[in-house]
Design a protein that fits this description.
Length: 629
């Protein structure tokens, strides 16, 4: 045997993992060197054995690599927690292990009874990536139906399974020829199919089928674990949500209880509606307006511009709905809760609702409406009791003759009324149907001003501190007529001071009422000073005051400038309002008369020659002449 060609040379080739073609080199070299037949036969034998050893080593290395890769895949899949990540890892690892052109995975759809493309790797066709396979159609449908692996080296022409146009078009667009599919089996149920495919007619080896099947087994477990983990996550999420709801409900209950305690404490300490509104506005974080049964705002808290505007607009329907349902009603950014006692409407709470406005907030508002109703009923009871006391006292003060003056003063001091101060007596005529509401308003007004209110001789009578009877009459008219169905007429007398003087002031107020009715001025309010010369006709009037009211501006002007506008006006009326005769009587030019009358109009007003006004002025001129002024 030649020294250049010994069997040991193949050991060197094996050691450096030479390519298979290099094993022909020693045999060719020996043949060129003229080696004998026996030597060449020995080299051929050594080459064959070396190639077999090389193939065995290659299979061992490949198997080792596959096992390592499969082990690493199992570890990777076990570490994954997201289902999408699990599926993508399965397909990517299959592509690496098998070395196929395209790998993909389909999953069963129990709702539709078919399988659908879930994840692909190496695919370029959108049609292929969105395929759905009916059970028993295509290679994948057959694998899913039979739970067995199937392989074809020429899919387009393989007649072992049923073709459909949709599947064939997708496979054709992707350009796949050889396809291997293995089932993803979980227990006895197929949950999907794992595929490896090539774009050439290459058959898949047995070990590749086994390897893909092993990967599919791991993948099925991993998919199930991911699904179970997702269910666990969903359950934990639901548990967290439930826990948060419980905590939120507990916090809401504690918050509502705290507000209720504040309201109860406020009412027990004698707090008013304004205080209740403040507590509610602070708790709910919005502006609150409290309105009475007539829709008038009686209390505000917080930024109540919105609620107050809503109260003056169209809240009546919302209040009616709230009263009918017994719950607060929302419209836009306003929430309205009716305040009622049994079937009697007392008013409403109008809240500018913040965001968000929860059910707990609504219950707090509804509870506050009940507390306000309770407070209003308590206030009404207090007012009725005070009215009974004040009414009895007022009856005794206005009786003629007045008796027990010393005890009357003491009784008045007990209810906070000082009869030694000037007071005004106001009498009001109200229709029978309106009297209850008017009585309530009168009591509220008298309490706010530190006076008395009650009934006397069929009229509503108030005793109010002050020295302006005309202003008092107007205040009473404004306070009492709201919500009445008929006109309310008000007369005032006084001011008077001292227990024995109020009966006289009452008589004066009644005379004013009679005069207003006689003049057809029902629904008006007046004192003697408002009636002008009629006060003299009615008796009890001051002539000087009547004259001053009618001629005051002219008197002041003449006194300051030394003119005689009063004499000109008096002569003008005496001459039948003739400018010429007036000028002759005064020995002045008619233009001078005109100028003086123009000045008079500027001082007395443009209506000074109207019939009613001119009558007052002429009467005042006569009083001035009689009094010698």
């Amino acid at each position: 045997m030649s020294a250049l060609a010994t069997p040991s040379v193949f050991l060197d080739l094996l050691a450096r993992d030479a390519a298979a073609i290099e094993y022909d080199g020693p045999v060719v070299a020996a043949r060129v060197a003229g080696a004998g037949a026996e030597e060449l036969a020995g080299l051929e034998t050594a080459k064959r054995v070396a190639l077999e050893v090389r193939a065995t080593l290659a299979r061992s290395r490949r198997r080792e690599a596959e096992l390592v890769a499969l082990f690493e895949t199992a570890g990777d899949l076990a570490a994954l927690r997201d289902l999408d990540a699990v599926l993508k890892a399965i397909v990517t690892r299959a592509h690496t292990l098998i070395g196929a052109d395209v790998t993909y995975l389909t999953l069963d759809d129990p709702d539709r009874g078919d399988t659908y493309m879930r994840v692909t790797h190496g695919s370029v066709s959108a049609r292929f990536q969105s395929l759905r396979l009916e059970m028993g159609t295509g290679l994948g449908g057959l694998v899913a139906q039979t739970a067995k692996p199937y392989v074809t080296s020429d899919y387009p022409h393989d007649s072992r399974f049923r073709h459909t146009n949709e599947i064939d078009q997708g496979v054709g667009e992707e350009g796949l020829i050889a396809i291997l599919g293995v089932p993803l089996v979980l227990g006895s149920r197929v949950i999907g199919v794992l595929f490896a495919a090539n774009r050439t007619a290459r058959p898949f080896a047995r070990h590749e089928i086994t390897l893909l099947g092993s990967l599919a087994a791991h993948a099925a477990v991993a998919i199930d674990n991911a699904r179970l983990l997702q269910k666990t996550r969903d359950a934990l999420s639901e548990l967290r949500s439930a826990n948060e709801l419980v905590r939120a409900h507990s916090a809401a209950v504690e918050r509502a209880a705290a507000v209720h305690d504040k309201l109860a404490d406020l009412v027990l300490r004698g707090g008013d509606v304004e205080g209740i509104a403040g507590v509610v506005a602070e708790a709910l974080g919005g502006g609150l307006a409290v309105v009475d049964a007539d829709g008038m705002v009686t209390a505000v808290a917080g930024d109540a511009a919105g609620p107050a505007a809503g109260a003056g607009a169209s809240s009546s329907e919302l209040v009616a709905t709230s009263a009918a349902t017994g719950h607060a009603v929302r419209s836009g950014d306003l929430v309205v809760a009716a305040v009622a006692a049994a079937a009697e409407p007392l008013g409403a709470l109008i809240l500018s609702a913040p965001e968000p406005f929860s059910d707990v907030d609504q219950r707090i508002l509804e509870r506050a409406a009940l507390v306000v109703a309770l407070r209003l009923l308590m206030r009404r009871s207090e007012a009725e009791a005070a009215e009974r006391l004040g009414g009895d006292l007022l009856d005794d003060l206005l009786a003629v003759p007045v008796r027990h003056t010393s005890t009357l003063a003491e009784r008045a001091r007990r209810v906070g009324v000082d009869l030694d101060r000037p007071h005004i007596v106001v009498a009001a005529d109200a229709a029978p149907a309106d009297r209850p509401r008017a009585h309530f308003a009168a009591g509220r007004l008298a309490k706010s001003e530190g006076g008395l209110a009650g009934s006397h001789e069929g009229r509503i009578v108030l005793l109010l501190p002050g020295d302006d009877p005309s202003g008092a009459a107007q205040r009473v008219l404004t306070a009492l007529r709201a919500g009445l169905g008929n006109p309310l007429t008000v007369g005032a007398g006084g001011p008077k001071a001292g227990v024995a003087a109020y009966a006289e002031a009452h008589a004066e107020a009644v005379r004013c009422l009679s005069a207003l009715h006689a003049l057809g001025r029902d629904g008006c309010a007046a004192a003697h000073s408002d009636l002008g010369f009629l006060a003299l006709v009615l008796g009890g009037g001051d002539p000087g005051a009547v004259m001053r009211d009618a001629l005051g501006p002219l008197i002041d002007y003449d006194a300051k400038r030394g003119t005689d506008l009063l004499g000109t006006v008096e002569q003008y009326f005496a001459c039948g309002r003739s400018l010429g005769r007036t000028g002759e009587a005064l020995h002045i030019h008619v233009n001078t008369v005109t100028q003086r009358l123009d000045r008079t109009a500027r001082l007395l007003g443009g209506d000074w020659q109207e019939p009613g006004r001119s009558l007052e002025i002429q009467l005042a001129l006569q009083i001035r002449r009689v009094m010698g002024l």
